[in-house]
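pinned: reference chain
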Amino acid sequence: PQVDSANAGRVLASDAAVFLKKSGLTDLVLGKIWDLADTDGKGILNKQEFFVALRLVACAQNGLDVSLSSLNLPVPPPRFTDTNSPLLLSGTASSDVPWAVKLEDKAKYDAIFDSLNPVNGLLSGDKVKPVLLNSKLPVDILGRVWELSDIDRDGMLDRDEFAVAMFLVYCALEKEPVPMSLPAALVPPSKRKPISVSGAMPLIPSSTSTKESHQSLPPVGILAAKTPLTQ
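pinned: its C-alpha cells
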C-alpha cells in the first residue's frame, strides 16, 4: 500500500524507484533488480513482480547474487530506511557508530598504502588494482570492493578509503559476503559529512559537526567509466 497509492494492484517504475532507493543499494544494483522483476519490460510491476523485486533487494543486502536463482534462498526480509528513520545515515546517527576498521588493522593497511607511493595522499586505481588482484578474489567481487571503497567517487583511494578496501578484501577472503552497499559502520569518520547533491567533494574538509553519508549517487555511466577493475 505504501507504493501502490492508487491501489491498482500494480506499481509504476517511478514510484517503485523512489521506494527501492530507500534500500541503500547502488543505482547499478537497483537497475539490475528492476530488469529481473519487470519481466515484460512494460515499466510496471504487478504484485507478483514487485514481490520478486523485494526478494532481490533482500538478496543484495545480504551479499547474495542478484539473480533469479537467489530467489529460493532463505534471506531475512529487505530493509528499507524511511527518511525520518534514525537508521538512515543522517545527523549524528552515523558519527556515533564506531568505525569497523580496528586500530591495529588500520596501521597494517596504512603501511601497505604508504608502500604504494601515494601522490598527494591518494592512490590511483592503477596502483590499487595489483594489490586487489593479488588477493585472487573474483574480479566481480573486487569491482564491488572498489566501488564501495571509493566513497567520494573520484577514481582514487585516500588512506581511509584504502583501509575500507583492504577490510572488505579480508572479509571476502574469510568467505564473508561483500555487501552491496557500504554499512554505516564501515564509512570512515572522515567521510561522514554532507556532500552537495552534485556529488562534488568540498576541497577543504569541513570542520562542522554535521556528519552525513552521501546519499547522492553519480550517474551509472560515470561510475562504470571510473571503475578500473571492471574494464
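why pinned: The mean pLDDT is 78. DSSP finds eight helices and four strands in the chain.
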